[in-house]
């Protein structure tokens, strides 16, 4: 079987790596991919959002399954385009992807179906004065979010009302996100611990992967600017069996049912961003795809053929497939370029990758690299996802394995957080 993976980050490298282990996969293509992915897949130089070109490539090359990594092509309707001509593709349709593409839609949907989430109000640009009034009447912290896709920058947790008013002004007056910010969701701040849960679904049946935790901020201790994610680990003990049961009953099942009722049957991976407060999960956000870097920690834990699993989401029948997990924990530490998430330099030579061996339980997923004269150089903000897989009951050991690998890899200006997974270790100590 020929498979095409769309995207170019660490998530896509992890998808390619896992799919490649399937005995049924004969050849893997990745569009556009990166230099690390090129070790496993044939790169295709088509951008991830060029729906028509991707369709043409898949049709011409008789791709049996296309797997979409990032949200942009999904929100643009790549699944509808492929399915219209009978091509098999893993991901939600355009109307289903609105769960990520429009925060206003997602919030109204949750309200209608009684799915637990932060209280909110929605305002369009023409309701600027009402929105300001609303902020004035609430206590900080207040969360202000742009309705549309804003590359992960559209949600701002404001510590004061003044800050919330400023953010609103940036959306409505300065149009910093253009159309995506012309409607705003203003919501209540939720206290608690965040976790990410991936639901693989064919629209009615589903399987839930191991819960993970991302580390969104640039500095240790969750301080500093928001990034695309500086590291992840799984399974995340904050999502206990009891929490997961609530997630299934109070969130996953009503979401899938509600989306069917709305005529927006949701297929593919539903990323449920959770806030867990005293054992009660609420939805922070939905994404219509695997999370990154979470996927780099979650996919290695799947004990089974990912091609079978993803195909069963596209074709139907995921509910009758057993998805097993290794009795293991995984920790992914992101190595980034100095300056990220602001300006940074690229083209720095990466050394030490040859010292990392799969036999030691470590795999390095590339997020942004290219090759110059046969060696890898940096090509973006987040460069590598160094992922260790270790014993499930020894998260601390897995963390140490990840960091000992990180220390063997160098490039000029390499930056990483030194506390990835630490939140999870506390739970192990609590249990003792
Ligand atoms: P979002 O783009 O909706 O995922 O928001 C980005 C980040 O902002 C989340 O991962 C949370 O850390 C934070 N956040 C968003 N909404 C809330 C909320 N209602 N309460 C607390 N934190 C939030
Ligand atoms: N790690 C957060 C995201 O993928 O949206």
Task: Explain this structure.
With 432 residues, the protein is an alpha+beta fold. It has three domains: 2-84, 3-Layer(aba) Sandwich (Rossmann fold); 119-188, ATP-grasp fold, A domain (Dna Ligase, domain 1), CATH 3.30.1490.20; 193-431, 2-Layer Sandwich (D-amino Acid Aminotransferase, Chain A, domain 1). It is 30% helix and 28% strand. It is built from 13 helices and 25 strands. The protein has helices at residues 10-20, 51-60, 71-76, 78-84, 98-101, 103-112, 128-136, 161-172, 241-261, 294-298, 306-315, 395-407, 422-431, and strands at 2-7, 27-32, 42-43, 65-68, 89-90, 120-124, 142-146, 155-158, 183-188, 193-201, 206-208, 213-214, 217-219, 223-226, 231-234, 268-277, 280-287, 302-303, 324-325, 328-337, 362-366, 369-372, 375-378, 382-391, 414-415. The strands form seven sheets. Strands 12, 15, 20, 21, 24 and 25 form a six-stranded antiparallel β-sheet that branches. A five-stranded parallel β-sheet has the order 3-2-1-4-5. It has a four-stranded antiparallel β-sheet with strand order 6-9-7-8, with helices on both faces. Strand 16 and strand 17 form a beta hairpin. Helix 7 packs antiparallel against helix 8 (161-172). The structure holds adenosine monophosphate (AMP) and glycine.
Query: What overall geometry do the principal axes of the alpha carbons give?
Result: globular
CATH topology of the largest domain: D-amino Acid Aminotransferase, Chain A, domain 1
The low-pLDDT segments are none
Q: Kindly, what is the distance between the CA atoms of the first and last residues, rounded to a whole number of angstroms? A: 48 Å
CATH class of the largest domain: Alpha Beta
- What share of residues are in beta strands? 25-35%
Please, what is the CATH homologous superfamily of the largest domain? ATP-grasp fold, B domain
- Largest sheet features: 6 strands, antiparallel
Instruction: Compute the number of helices.
Output: 13
Bound molecules: adenosine monophosphate, glycine
CATH architecture of the largest domain: 2-Layer Sandwich
Helix content: 25-40%
Indicate how many domains the architecture comprises: 3
Structural class comes to alpha+beta
């Amino acid at each position: 079987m020929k498979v095409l993976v769309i995207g170019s980050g660490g998530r896509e490298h992890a998808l390619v790596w896992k799919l490649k282990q399937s005995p049924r996969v004969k050849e893997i293509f990745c569009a556009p991919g990166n230099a690390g992915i090129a070790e496993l897949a044939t790169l295709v130089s088509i951008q991830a959002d060029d729906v028509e070109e991707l369709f043409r490539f898949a049709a011409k090359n008789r791709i049996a399954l296309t797997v979409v990594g990032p949200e942009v092509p999904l929100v643009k309707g790549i699944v509808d385009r492929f399915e219209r001509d009978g091509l098999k593709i893993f991901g939600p349709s355009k109307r289903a992807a609105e769960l990520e593409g429009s925060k206003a839609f997602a919030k109204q949907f949750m309200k209608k179906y009684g799915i637990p989430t932060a209280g909110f109000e929605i305002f369009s640009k023409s309701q600027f004065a009402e929105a300001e009034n609303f902020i004035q009447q609430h206590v900080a912290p207040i969360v202000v979010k742009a309705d549309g896709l804003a590359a992960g920058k559209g949600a701002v947790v404001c510590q004061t009302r003044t800050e919330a008013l400023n953010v609103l002004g940036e959306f409505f007056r300065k149009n910093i996100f253009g159309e995506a910010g012309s409607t705003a969701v203003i919501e209540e701040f939720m206290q608690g611990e965040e976790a990410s849960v991936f639901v693989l679904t064919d629209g009615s049946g589903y399987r839930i992967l191991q819960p993970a935790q991302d580390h969104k901020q640039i500095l240790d201790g969750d301080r500093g600017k928001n990034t695309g994610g500086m590291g992840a680990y799984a399974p995340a003990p904050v999502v206990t069996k009891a929490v997961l049961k609530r997630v299934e009953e109070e969130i996953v099942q009503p979401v899938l049912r509600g989306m069917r009722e709305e005529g927006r049957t949701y297929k593919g991976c539903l990323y449920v961003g959770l806030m867990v407060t005293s054992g009660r999960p609420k939805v922070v956000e939905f994404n219509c795809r695997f999370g990154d870097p979470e996927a780099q920690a979650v996919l290695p834990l799947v004990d089974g053929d990912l091609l079978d699993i993803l195909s069963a989401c596209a074709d139907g029948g995921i509910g009758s497939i057993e998805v097993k997990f290794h009795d293991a924990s995984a920790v992914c530490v992101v190595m980034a370029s100095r300056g990220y998430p602001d300006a940074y330099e690229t083209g720095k030579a990466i050394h030490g990758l040859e010292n990392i061996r799969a036999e030691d339980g470590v795999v390095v997923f590339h997020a942004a690299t290219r090759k110059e004269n046969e060696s890898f150089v940096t090509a973006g903000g987040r460069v590598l996802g160094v992922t260790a897989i270790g014993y499930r009951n020894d998260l601390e050991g897995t963390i140490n394995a990840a960091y000992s690998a990180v220390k063997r890899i160098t490039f000029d200006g390499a930056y990483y957080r030194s506390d990835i997974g630490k939140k999870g270790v506390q739970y192990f100590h609590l249990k003792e």
